[in-house]
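To assess whether ligand presence alters the predicted conformation, the chain was also submitted together with nicotinamide-adenine-dinucleotide. Input:
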Amino acid sequence: MSDRYQLFANSPAGRLLTRNLGLPAPLVLDRFDASKPLVNGAVLLGAAPNAELIAPIAKVLKNIHADVYAGHSASIHQIAASDAGLSLRSFSSDDRIFKFKAFVFDATGIKNSEQLVEVYNFFHPIARQLVNCGRVVILGRTPESCTDPKQATAQRALEGFTRSVGKEFKKACTAQLIYVAPNAEDQIESSLRFFLSAQSAYVSGQVVRVSASETQVNIDWSKPLAGKTALVTGASRGIGEAIAEVLARDGAHVICLDIPAQEADLQRVAGALGGSVLALDITAADAPQQITDYCKAKGGLDIIVHNAGVTRDKTLANMTPQQWGLVMNINLSSEERINDALFANNVINANGRVICVSSISGIAGNLGQSNYGMSKAGVIGMVQSMAPILKAQGITINAVAPGFIETQMTAAIPFAIREAGRRMNSMSQGGQPVDVAEAIAWYASPASAGVNGNVVRVCGQSLIGA
Ligand code: NAD
């Protein structure tokens, strides 16, 4: 689906007009390109005193061949970084010209609210030195894991800072906060890679919790899903098609599922990826058994993506029981029935992934979407309640909550509401299906064993429910 305003705003005449009239100027977002470095520019690394994650962060930055600079307290970082084999280049904060692609700040050493000034000290001098589509990643300690209330308070405060700079830095820059639990230091790589890369183009203002895991993997980062089997529901078009494509790009064999009426499109999508086709309605009484039998015959599933979903928008007073029931059944109850069957029959393999597609409507609610908002909030409930249960089996469950994504679903929205949904976010544009797919691929990675029970919005930091 095309955004004509964005095309115009990026033309020479459009740039002039939008600047003079103060109109939104949606930049063309950097997106994944295998021929480019993961971080296409310099990284500035900073930390509060007594930071606990410099060495694991440095290890990741070394693995991705980043060009890393350090300013404030550089000598302290240098020791920890050199232990990880990373050499830091020095940067003077008096240099107001040099531009960075990413700022990474380790805030784990902050123990009370007075020490939060360290965040100001690092970011204030360089706040104008991030390039277009730049990245801010702050790492903190999971507040729930802090035994001292003062430390928990200060760590929790980082959320407000992160979400604010996500809105303030503009130029399609993103800002995220990764809370790292004690003993989860070895689990940060997949998340740091995702949030520093172009793959998180439309994700901003998010808070992710990384927990400890015994799972250690050695993967080929260019094909992280090699040898894995994934099932994607609703894969014949839109977001589901993009998810199937990205998981296949990352090396997975993808089973593409959709309703029988969509079988021609399903064949086209699966055919292009070397995937398989499973045409069935997920609400059918025998769907859980059919999916179980089919996937068992394929050697089990490593990844299931519950993407199929529908809307039937009406105000509650005008909503029929059919509109209510259809949405609840497709978007939530059928997912529960399928999960129950897959777990009862041990279809999900070790280090498996259950990934759900919620919506910001499930977080903020929406006029005319009491059925849809309820079903998508239920998806979040399912993720949060099942995460501790599945963790014990070495399986993770997470959700994405897309905002306005350019698909047939959003193309059907009346013009004025569509324009509002599209522009009212930090990127001034809708996301692409691939943006949702990239977040799902991050969850799906075998290296994301510590990412469990998270709900990450893919919404360009939409003001709706922000
Ligand atoms: P879409 O309508 O383009 O695709 C949905 C797919 O699900 C279709 O191919 C459809 O045939 C399939 N499907 C529907 N009912 C099914 C059933 N009973 N059995 C099997 N397959 C079924 O929608 P989309 O925009 O690609 O949305 C994909 C997911 O993302 C949905 O869960 C949706 O709620 C969610 N989402 C979308 C947006 C957005 O802006 N597009 C925003 C938030 C959440």
